[in-house]
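Section 5.1 Outputs to date
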Amino acid sequence: MVEGARFVHTNLVARDWRALAGFYERVFGCLPVPPERHFAGATLEAGTSVPGARLDGLHLRLPGHGENGPTLEIFTYDPLFEAAPPRVNRPGLGHIAFEVDSVAAAKGVVLAAGGAPVGETVTLITEDGRRVTWCYVTDPEGNIIELQSWRSGGAAAEEEVGAREEEA
């Protein structure tokens, strides 16, 4: 095990870091953590293995974890690699998730701010009886966001759209 390890940030490569940072600030209440980052040169190229790399961006403090909590690091790379295979300068990631009070309300805010739906809102029941209502949406650049709301056993979320259980 790595001693002293602590999760600090998730990086999101954006086509327009300022616009995407604004989305996360407005929609989820993320807060900028100065200073802005503007890097280029041999050291950045060596660290990223991207010839001619330049990056610009900002860290945003994620909500719910206080002033020392993890951040969302949003950078725009130049050059920007637009296709697979996975690379450090490819836009996107699997998904990030936010726990919210109401999935339906949060989904409405995301869509009004330029996001898009992915699939339906569903509720799953864990083996210990907890219910998680969730859906996937995208931010304006197409990165997937999971919106989730947890309820203890028996307490169903008002917005549940049927409980779907996976077959074992």
